[in-house]
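Example (one chain per record):
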Amino acid sequence: MDIYGVMKVISGPLVCSLVGYGTNYIAIKMMFRPLNPVYIWGKRLPFTPGIIPARKGQLATAVGNAVGDNLLTANDIKSNILNNSTKVAFTNKLYEEMINFMNNNMSLNEIAKDAGVEVHGITKGLDHFLSKLIVDGAIKMHIGEIIAKESADIINEKINRTLFSKMISDDFIYSITFNMGSRIEEYIDEHGVERLTPIVHEEIHKLYNYPVKELTKDVELNEYKTKMILMAIIDIALDKAVESLLENVNISEMVKKKIDDMDVKQLESLVMSVMKNELNAIVNL
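Predicted structure:
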Protein backbone atom coordinates (compact mmCIF):
# COMPACT_ATOMS: atom_id res chain seq x y z
CA MET A 1 0.00 0.00 0.00
CA ASP A 2 1.42 3.38 -1.00
CA ILE A 3 1.64 6.42 1.25
CA TYR A 4 -1.64 7.76 -0.12
CA GLY A 5 -3.43 4.61 0.91
CA VAL A 6 -1.88 4.70 4.38
CA MET A 7 -2.94 8.32 4.84
CA LYS A 8 -6.43 7.49 3.67
CA VAL A 9 -6.71 4.72 6.24
CA ILE A 10 -5.41 6.72 9.21
CA SER A 11 -6.83 10.13 8.30
CA GLY A 12 -10.37 9.23 9.39
CA PRO A 13 -9.49 8.01 12.89
CA LEU A 14 -6.91 10.79 13.28
CA VAL A 15 -9.32 13.57 12.34
CA CYS A 16 -12.06 12.09 14.55
CA SER A 17 -9.63 11.81 17.45
CA LEU A 18 -8.53 15.42 17.06
CA VAL A 19 -12.13 16.59 16.79
CA GLY A 20 -13.11 14.50 19.84
CA TYR A 21 -10.14 15.79 21.81
CA GLY A 22 -10.98 19.38 20.89
CA THR A 23 -14.69 19.09 21.68
CA ASN A 24 -14.04 17.38 25.02
CA TYR A 25 -11.48 20.04 25.91
CA ILE A 26 -13.92 22.82 24.97
CA ALA A 27 -16.78 21.12 26.83
CA ILE A 28 -14.74 20.93 30.03
CA LYS A 29 -13.61 24.53 29.65
CA MET A 30 -17.23 25.55 29.13
CA MET A 31 -17.99 24.26 32.63
CA PHE A 32 -16.38 27.52 33.84
CA ARG A 33 -15.85 29.75 30.80
CA PRO A 34 -16.85 32.34 30.02
CA LEU A 35 -17.03 33.64 33.52
CA ASN A 36 -19.68 36.23 32.64
CA PRO A 37 -22.59 36.44 30.15
CA VAL A 38 -21.64 37.47 26.59
CA TYR A 39 -24.07 39.78 24.77
CA ILE A 40 -24.23 40.54 21.07
CA TRP A 41 -26.67 43.21 19.90
CA GLY A 42 -28.31 43.06 23.32
CA LYS A 43 -28.91 39.34 23.26
CA ARG A 44 -27.11 36.88 25.49
CA LEU A 45 -25.24 34.15 23.67
CA PRO A 46 -26.26 30.58 24.60
CA PHE A 47 -24.07 28.73 27.10
CA THR A 48 -22.73 32.01 28.55
CA PRO A 49 -21.63 32.18 31.28
CA GLY A 50 -20.29 28.66 31.81
CA ILE A 51 -22.36 25.98 33.51
CA ILE A 52 -20.86 26.38 36.99
CA PRO A 53 -20.87 30.23 37.07
CA ALA A 54 -24.47 30.18 35.82
CA ARG A 55 -25.53 27.71 38.49
CA LYS A 56 -23.27 28.71 41.34
CA GLY A 57 -26.24 29.36 43.61
CA GLN A 58 -27.73 25.92 42.99
CA LEU A 59 -24.30 24.34 43.42
CA ALA A 60 -23.83 26.19 46.72
CA THR A 61 -27.20 24.98 47.99
CA ALA A 62 -26.57 21.38 46.91
CA VAL A 63 -23.08 21.25 48.45
CA GLY A 64 -24.29 23.00 51.62
CA ASN A 65 -27.12 20.48 52.06
CA ALA A 66 -24.80 17.56 51.36
CA VAL A 67 -22.24 18.74 53.93
CA GLY A 68 -24.75 19.80 56.59
CA ASP A 69 -27.11 16.82 56.28
CA ASN A 70 -24.68 13.99 55.59
CA LEU A 71 -20.99 14.82 55.81
CA LEU A 72 -20.78 17.08 58.88
CA THR A 73 -23.85 16.73 61.06
CA ALA A 74 -24.40 18.32 64.48
CA ASN A 75 -23.98 14.89 66.09
CA ASP A 76 -20.61 14.45 64.34
CA ILE A 77 -19.38 17.75 65.72
CA LYS A 78 -20.71 17.02 69.20
CA SER A 79 -19.20 13.54 69.38
CA ASN A 80 -15.79 14.87 68.30
CA ILE A 81 -15.79 17.84 70.68
CA LEU A 82 -17.11 15.90 73.65
CA ASN A 83 -14.77 12.93 73.39
CA ASN A 84 -12.75 11.90 76.43
CA SER A 85 -9.39 13.20 75.17
CA THR A 86 -10.88 16.68 74.67
CA LYS A 87 -12.28 16.70 78.20
CA VAL A 88 -8.95 15.56 79.64
CA ALA A 89 -7.13 18.29 77.70
CA PHE A 90 -9.59 20.91 78.98
CA THR A 91 -9.23 19.64 82.55
CA ASN A 92 -5.42 19.65 82.49
CA LYS A 93 -5.30 23.13 80.99
CA LEU A 94 -7.81 24.50 83.49
CA TYR A 95 -5.91 22.95 86.40
CA GLU A 96 -2.66 24.41 85.08
CA GLU A 97 -4.22 27.88 84.81
CA MET A 98 -5.64 27.51 88.33
CA ILE A 99 -2.18 26.76 89.74
CA ASN A 100 -0.67 29.67 87.80
CA PHE A 101 -3.37 31.97 89.14
CA MET A 102 -2.78 30.85 92.73
CA ASN A 103 0.95 31.58 92.36
CA ASN A 104 0.38 35.02 90.85
CA ASN A 105 2.14 37.90 92.60
CA MET A 106 -0.35 40.40 91.19
CA SER A 107 -3.39 41.53 93.16
CA LEU A 108 -6.97 40.93 92.04
CA ASN A 109 -7.20 44.63 91.18
CA GLU A 110 -4.15 44.43 88.92
CA ILE A 111 -5.32 41.23 87.22
CA ALA A 112 -8.76 42.70 86.57
CA LYS A 113 -7.24 45.94 85.28
CA ASP A 114 -5.06 44.03 82.79
CA ALA A 115 -8.18 42.20 81.59
CA GLY A 116 -10.06 45.48 81.21
CA VAL A 117 -12.58 44.49 83.88
CA GLU A 118 -13.72 46.43 86.94
CA VAL A 119 -13.20 44.01 89.82
CA HIS A 120 -15.78 45.78 91.98
CA GLY A 121 -18.38 45.05 89.34
CA ILE A 122 -17.52 41.36 89.40
CA THR A 123 -18.14 41.08 93.15
CA LYS A 124 -21.25 43.26 93.30
CA GLY A 125 -23.57 41.86 95.98
CA LEU A 126 -20.89 39.52 97.33
CA ASP A 127 -20.70 41.42 100.63
CA HIS A 128 -24.45 41.02 101.23
CA PHE A 129 -24.32 37.34 100.19
CA LEU A 130 -21.45 36.54 102.57
CA SER A 131 -23.04 38.52 105.40
CA LYS A 132 -26.26 36.54 105.03
CA LEU A 133 -24.31 33.26 105.07
CA ILE A 134 -22.54 34.30 108.29
CA VAL A 135 -25.78 35.36 109.97
CA ASP A 136 -27.61 32.18 108.90
CA GLY A 137 -24.71 30.13 110.23
CA ALA A 138 -24.74 31.97 113.54
CA ILE A 139 -28.48 31.36 113.95
CA LYS A 140 -28.17 27.65 113.08
CA MET A 141 -25.41 27.16 115.65
CA HIS A 142 -27.65 28.88 118.29
CA ILE A 143 -25.12 31.57 119.03
CA GLY A 144 -27.49 33.08 121.64
CA GLU A 145 -27.55 29.89 123.68
CA ILE A 146 -23.77 29.59 123.50
CA ILE A 147 -23.32 33.18 124.68
CA ALA A 148 -25.89 32.65 127.45
CA LYS A 149 -24.23 29.49 128.75
CA GLU A 150 -20.71 30.94 128.61
CA SER A 151 -21.91 34.13 130.31
CA ALA A 152 -23.64 32.14 133.08
CA ASP A 153 -20.49 30.08 133.66
CA ILE A 154 -18.34 33.22 133.92
CA ILE A 155 -20.80 34.91 136.34
CA ASN A 156 -20.97 31.81 138.51
CA GLU A 157 -17.20 31.55 138.61
CA LYS A 158 -16.82 35.17 139.71
CA ILE A 159 -19.69 35.08 142.23
CA ASN A 160 -18.33 31.95 143.88
CA ARG A 161 -15.33 34.01 144.91
CA THR A 162 -17.46 36.59 146.73
CA LEU A 163 -19.88 36.81 149.63
CA PHE A 164 -22.82 36.81 147.20
CA SER A 165 -22.35 33.14 146.28
CA LYS A 166 -24.98 32.02 148.82
CA MET A 167 -27.42 34.80 147.98
CA ILE A 168 -27.72 34.30 144.19
CA SER A 169 -28.85 30.94 142.87
CA ASP A 170 -27.67 29.28 139.65
CA ASP A 171 -31.24 29.28 138.32
CA PHE A 172 -31.47 33.03 138.72
CA ILE A 173 -28.21 33.57 136.81
CA TYR A 174 -29.22 31.22 133.98
CA SER A 175 -32.64 32.85 133.68
CA ILE A 176 -30.95 36.22 133.13
CA THR A 177 -28.29 34.99 130.70
CA PHE A 178 -30.64 32.82 128.65
CA ASN A 179 -33.07 35.70 128.32
CA MET A 180 -30.13 37.79 127.13
CA GLY A 181 -29.12 35.06 124.65
CA SER A 182 -32.62 34.94 123.22
CA ARG A 183 -32.60 38.71 122.71
CA ILE A 184 -29.19 38.48 121.03
CA GLU A 185 -30.45 35.85 118.55
CA GLU A 186 -33.46 38.01 117.73
CA TYR A 187 -31.23 41.00 117.12
CA ILE A 188 -28.86 39.02 114.90
CA ASP A 189 -31.79 37.65 112.91
CA GLU A 190 -33.34 41.09 112.37
CA HIS A 191 -30.29 43.35 112.02
CA GLY A 192 -27.29 41.03 111.54
CA VAL A 193 -27.03 41.28 107.74
CA GLU A 194 -27.59 45.04 107.81
CA ARG A 195 -24.83 45.61 110.41
CA LEU A 196 -22.41 43.03 109.01
CA THR A 197 -22.55 43.94 105.30
CA PRO A 198 -20.50 47.20 105.54
CA ILE A 199 -17.80 45.40 107.55
CA VAL A 200 -17.60 42.50 105.05
CA HIS A 201 -17.63 45.01 102.18
CA GLU A 202 -14.60 46.80 103.63
CA GLU A 203 -12.70 43.54 104.19
CA ILE A 204 -13.40 42.35 100.65
CA HIS A 205 -12.02 45.58 99.22
CA LYS A 206 -8.88 45.17 101.30
CA LEU A 207 -8.39 41.72 99.79
CA TYR A 208 -8.49 43.21 96.27
CA ASN A 209 -5.05 44.72 96.86
CA TYR A 210 -3.40 41.62 98.33
CA PRO A 211 -1.27 39.48 95.97
CA VAL A 212 -3.20 36.38 94.96
CA LYS A 213 -0.23 34.28 96.05
CA GLU A 214 -0.63 35.62 99.61
CA LEU A 215 -4.37 34.95 99.65
CA THR A 216 -3.94 31.34 98.55
CA LYS A 217 -0.71 30.44 100.38
CA ASP A 218 -2.56 28.23 102.88
CA VAL A 219 -4.64 26.49 100.21
CA GLU A 220 -3.49 22.95 99.39
CA LEU A 221 -5.03 21.29 96.35
CA ASN A 222 -5.23 17.54 95.91
CA GLU A 223 -4.41 17.31 92.20
CA TYR A 224 -6.36 14.11 91.54
CA LYS A 225 -9.53 15.17 93.39
CA THR A 226 -9.38 18.70 91.98
CA LYS A 227 -9.11 17.36 88.44
CA MET A 228 -12.01 15.00 89.02
CA ILE A 229 -14.16 17.95 90.14
CA LEU A 230 -13.03 20.02 87.17
CA MET A 231 -13.73 17.10 84.83
CA ALA A 232 -17.29 16.81 86.16
CA ILE A 233 -17.87 20.55 85.73
CA ILE A 234 -16.38 20.56 82.22
CA ASP A 235 -18.46 17.51 81.29
CA ILE A 236 -21.68 19.34 82.13
CA ALA A 237 -20.56 22.76 80.86
CA LEU A 238 -19.20 21.48 77.53
CA ASP A 239 -22.27 19.39 76.85
CA LYS A 240 -24.61 22.32 77.40
CA ALA A 241 -22.34 24.79 75.60
CA VAL A 242 -22.01 22.60 72.50
CA GLU A 243 -25.75 21.92 72.39
CA SER A 244 -26.46 25.65 72.67
CA LEU A 245 -23.87 26.42 69.99
CA LEU A 246 -25.18 23.85 67.53
CA GLU A 247 -28.73 25.12 67.97
CA ASN A 248 -27.57 28.45 66.58
CA VAL A 249 -25.24 27.14 63.86
CA ASN A 250 -26.61 26.16 60.45
CA ILE A 251 -23.80 24.22 58.80
CA SER A 252 -25.62 23.93 55.48
CA GLU A 253 -26.19 27.68 55.36
CA MET A 254 -22.56 28.40 56.28
CA VAL A 255 -21.24 26.23 53.43
CA LYS A 256 -23.77 27.69 50.98
CA LYS A 257 -22.79 31.27 51.89
CA LYS A 258 -19.09 30.41 51.65
CA ILE A 259 -19.50 29.08 48.09
CA ASP A 260 -21.83 31.96 47.12
CA ASP A 261 -19.20 34.46 48.30
CA MET A 262 -16.37 32.78 46.39
CA ASP A 263 -15.11 34.35 43.18
CA VAL A 264 -15.76 32.12 40.14
CA LYS A 265 -12.02 31.88 39.49
CA GLN A 266 -11.50 30.68 43.06
CA LEU A 267 -14.23 28.12 42.59
CA GLU A 268 -12.62 26.95 39.33
CA SER A 269 -9.23 26.61 41.05
CA LEU A 270 -10.83 24.65 43.86
CA VAL A 271 -12.60 22.21 41.53
CA MET A 272 -9.56 21.83 39.28
CA SER A 273 -7.26 21.19 42.24
CA VAL A 274 -9.41 18.15 43.04
CA MET A 275 -10.48 16.96 39.57
CA LYS A 276 -7.76 18.15 37.19
CA ASN A 277 -6.24 14.71 36.64
CA GLU A 278 -9.66 13.08 36.16
CA LEU A 279 -10.83 15.74 33.68
CA ASN A 280 -7.58 15.47 31.72
CA ALA A 281 -7.99 11.68 31.67
CA ILE A 282 -11.48 12.10 30.15
CA VAL A 283 -10.11 14.41 27.43
CA ASN A 284 -7.19 12.09 26.65
CA LEU A 285 -9.33 8.98 26.66
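Caption: The CA atoms of residues 21 and 283 lie 6 Å apart.
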